[in-house]
Amino acid sequence: MRFKIILAGLVLTLGATGLAHAADDVIAERQALMKANAAAAKTIFEMVQGKTDYDAAAAQAAFEKLAVDMKSFPSLFPEGSDQGKTTASPAIWQDKAGFEAIAVKLGADATAGAAAAAGGLDAIKASAGAVGGSCQSCHEKFRVKKS
User: Fold this and answer.
1) Rounded distance, CA 75 to CA 66, Å?
2) d(CA 119, CA 30)
């Protein structure tokens, strides 16, 4: 009997530890994805702002990166991943539909940008603006500001 109690305690402890590691892993994964998306957005915005020369292939690749990532992005915020080293706001879990809607819109805008990239710099400006607006909206609503 005593062995079963000890075993049950061990299983519960290991299970809780596993959940904590899983939450840490998903936080690290979404932070890595956000860094990669920031780099993709920077590529686009530097072209639009005239800081770098327009490169259709690079613009298309950057938009495609954003579009692909937005398909999986909401899944990187499972219940229980709001604790730990994260700037994810509790609003994500309180308004999951709103959070997911922004990701869908950003993905659609990025897809449009990728399709327009061959048309030149002027052709991507509207999509770049829409992507930037979605990023800003999401960060305002769903990210805790660092102090």
Assistant:
1) 15
2) 32
Instruction: Identify the segments of the chain with pLDDT beneath 50.
Output: 7, 10-11, 13-21
Are 103 and 137 in contact by the 8 Å Cβ rule? The answer is: no
7 located within any domain? no
CATH number at 112 reads 1.20.120.10
The length of the chain in residues reads 147
pLDDT at 146: 80
Count up the domains in the chain and report the number.
1
> Burial of 7 by CB count in 10 Å (0-12 exposed, 13-18 middle, 19+ buried)?
exposed
CA dihedral sign, ordered 75, 137, 46, 67:
positive
pLDDT at 2: 66
Q: Is residue 60 part of a domain?
A: yes
